[in-house]
Amino acid sequence: MVKLLNLNLRSSSSKLLSRNILNKLPPPKTQPFSQRTTTTTITMSVNLRNHAFAGNPLRSRTPSRVDPFSPAAAHETLKARILDTASGSSPCVNFKVLPFRNGRPLAASSGSDAWRLGWIALEEVKGLLGADLSAESFVYLGSDADEDSVYWAIDVSRESGLVAELGGMKLCFVELRTLMVATDWVNFKAMGNLAIAGHARALLEWHNIARFCGHCGEKTVPMEAGRRKQCSNECCKKRIYPRVDPVVIMLVIDRENDRALLSKQSRFVPRMWSCLAGFIEVGIAVLVAIERGIKISIFLISFTVKLNQPGESLEEAVRRETWEETGIEVGEVVYHSSQPWPVGPNSMPCQLMVGFFAYAKSLEITVDKEELEDAQWHSREDVRKALTFAEYKKAQQTAAAKVEQMCKGVEKTHSLANDFNLESGELAPMFVPGPFAIAHHLISSWAFPDQNVNGIECHSKQPSGSISSL
Fold first, then answer.
1. At what angle do helices 122-129 and 71-82 cross, to 10 degrees?
2. What share of the chain is helix, strand, coil (3-state, %, to 5)?
3. CA distances from 409 to 103, 108, 117, 172, 190 (A)
């Protein structure tokens, strides 16, 4: 029997999780971040508290400047510690730093198909970088008062000698997409690590592309512990804030015939179908990584996206893109949920995926062959069969094993480019993007609307409170 994986997400406008299941989940602030783990084991139905890259445990309110954990106070302490001028009366706050190299966070293997972020102490960073270290190089990520800790990120891409030195500590820089696939989605601590790494990467990449003022062309300088920048020109002083690019993603539904419209592109891995793909494609189906001279293809995810145009609402973008690519006219548009996506191109360091259900007014498909390879209506039953647990779990375990070998410095001896088979050895006729894609949750919440799946209640009713017909 094919095992089915139903992953549902809770959004502000729709109760996509069972109240009974939610009551069993540990509250998000019951213990220090480093000790937070999940105690819930779900095999047939997995319920996520947040999308991947959402639910950052370090993201907090803006405290007062006198609070030692605030960005301003922590940055002043950081300057003093770098210069070794911190007084003995300074609050005993631990500074933990996450280095990045070429957009890749430092990571370590925790064994048992798990990984962790490679936090290192400020004193270790000083030893590694020496006199070149500056407080302006750090970006404030947040704090954890329970652990008396403040967390920072730093870009060390120009420090070529660090790779070997950190490798001796069983630490390595790993592509964030690889870590995403390697994350066990029912482990809240691991998902929190992924959200922290995504937030940090987005900020650092934004700093890299916002080096000059768009108004006068002068250099910009970091302000507020790296949370914004400002033009250095005294006559300008324009404030610049981190960039977020809104993106729409939609599942088109045929209510009358109980079908969903899925598409595929030539770049997708075989047998994979997803929601419609847009003009600007920020998700990919296959990640091709070059590690130690070996070409490795990892099963990843695909998004259906389209950046909306200036003066265009999100609902209008959904309707326009659906019409352009498939000739399907959309009427009712219903909000589902949103997901930060910090692993797109460097020119767009953090996109915000905004997911919708789009209800078709016409049914005849006219595929734009320049954008899509194919688009077809699929029955609810076929979509359910496509949500196969074994393929997603195998991808996660394979990526986790890759991270472990990278951190141990062991050469990979086999390719991961083969299709992911079911545990029975049979191939599913089709599958949809994995659980880290908002596309997955759009599809699965439509496929399992308040039904029992192998005896488990899913409670994934489509939202009704955010309908827009503008």
1. 50
2. 25, 25, 45
3. 20, 11, 17, 9, 22
By residue count, the chain amounts to 470
Question: Do 277 and 325 touch, CB atoms closer than 8 A?
Answer: yes
- 224 in the Ramachandran plot: left (φ > 0), alpha (ψ -120 to 50) or beta? left
Assessment of whether the complete model's pTM goes beyond 0.85: no
Q: Is the distance from CB of 47 to CB of 17 less than 8 angstroms?
A: yes
* N-to-C CA span, the chain: 44
User: Could you give the C-alpha distances from 170 to 109, 115, 132, 289, 407, in angstroms and in order?
Assistant: 8, 12, 24, 20, 5
Nearest to 45 by CA among 21, 19, 69: 21
- Show the tokens assigned to 285: 């189906």
The span from the CA of 98 to the CA of 138, in Å, is 10
Please say whether the beta carbons of 355 and 336 come within 8 A.
yes
CB 167 within 8 A of CB 107: no
- Helices and strands: H and E segment counts in the chain: 10, 23
Cβ atoms of 442 and 275 within 8 Å: the answer is yes
Q: Which residue has the tokens 């033009």?
A: 231
Closest to 86 (Cα-Cα) out of 123, 40, 47, 137? 123
In the block, which residue shows the tokens 């767009």? 348
Torsion angle in degrees (nearest 10) through CA of 112, 117, 123, 128: 100
Q: CA-CA distance, 394 to 391, in Å (whole number)?
A: 5
Residue in 113, 120, 119 with CA at minimum distance from that of residue 187: 113
DSSP 274: B
Contact present, 454 and 44 (Cβ < 8 Å)? yes
Residue type, 86: A
Vertex 153, ends 149 and 154: CA angle to 5°? 135
CA-based nearest residue to 433, from 253, 181, 176, 175: 181
Q: What is the pLDDT of residues 232-282, one digit of tens each?
A: 999 999 999 998 888 889 999 999 999 999 998 877 778 888 988 553 333
Which tokens sit at 398?
A: 């394979």
Q: Which residues pair with 153 in a beta bridge?
A: 98, 139
Q: How far apart are CA 348 and CA 197, in angstroms?
A: 16
pLDDT tens digits, one per residue of 109-157: 887 668 999 999 999 999 888 877 899 999 999 998 888 899 999 999 9
